[in-house]
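Input sequence (130 aa), recorded before submission:
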Amino acid sequence: MGKNYRFTLLYISWMVCITLLSLFSFSAADDFGFEFPHKDKVVHVIFYFVATILGVRCLEEHSEGKQNSKNNIFRVIVFSIVFGMIIEGLQWVMPYGREADFWDVLANAIGAITGGLLVQKYRSLNTRGN
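Predicted structure, token format:
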């Protein structure tokens, strides 16, 4: 029976979703009926938090039992931050009504780092319990 690549599919889908939502303007759907300060930054944190968790799981699916969890987590955090910077750079040059923002890059990094720290904490608690 073939190997299950569930997290790989989820990760790729999530990254495509982040890319599309970040590069194209959806001004008519921006409010979703609720308002609070800096909600766009919260969305950035959530996007990259989830991306980091899914990215680590994706790498684990391809590691064939050779888990180097800290290294995988670090690599995914770095990739997520660089990916977010590239997306912000693309927003700056593309004509779709989006603007690059340093605070978005920072929110992306906070989400990626927090996601990585959560995975690491979960792993350390899980290995202690076994």
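Checked by second reader. The mean pLDDT is 86.
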